[in-house]
Amino acid sequence: MDIDQFLLAAARYRLDMADADEVIAAASSLTGTPAVPDEALAISALTPVDTRREELQPLVDQVLTGLGAQPLDDQTAAATVARSVAAAIRTDQVEPYDGARQLWRLARKVPAAEPSLTGFIHLASEWEDVPDQRAEIEADIKTEAGKLEQP
Fold first, then answer.
1. CA-based Rg of the chain, rounded to a whole angstrom?
2. Residues 42-60 pLDDT 10s
3. Contacts of 38-45 spanning 24+ positions with Cβ under 8 A
4. 66 in Cβ contact with 39 (< 8 Å)
5. Which stretches of 67-133 are DSSP H helices?
6. Cβ proximity of 30 and 1 under 8 Å
7. Which of 9, 27, 133, 142 registers the highest number of CB atoms within 10 A of its CB?
8. Residue 52 CB-density burial (10 A; 0-12 exposed, 13-18 middle, 19+ buried)
9. pLDDT tens digits for 93-102?
């Protein structure tokens, strides 16, 4: 796992889409990376059962700062998660409709992210409403994912 994976875990955690164990695993995988902030080591020493959000989130923010990134607000976290889902759609790790539905749910969770995800909402709805055009709609979802995938 690399810094990008920690960033994704941090974004998912920020949005309550991941548990502490995902962040702890991501921090643990950073321990061999050069110039890892001490807070990453502190996170990797935690146990998920005993970890409270009030304790972990500040450590996550400190790791991000130590890695040269800004702490995540909800909109930035949503953009990070959305790009990850888009990449999964484009690489066939997630079915296009399933990915579009994930992005639809993300837009509902973080309304500020909805403008960039409107195309997925429309395409997922169309996929449900027009079953005889699903192959074309799935291709359109992949195209839309390619546009979103870039930061």
1. 17
2. 999 898 888 899 999 999 9
3. 38/66, 39/63, 39/66, 40/6, 40/66
4. yes
5. 74-90, 96-109, 114-129
6. yes
7. 27
8. exposed
9. 999 999 999 9
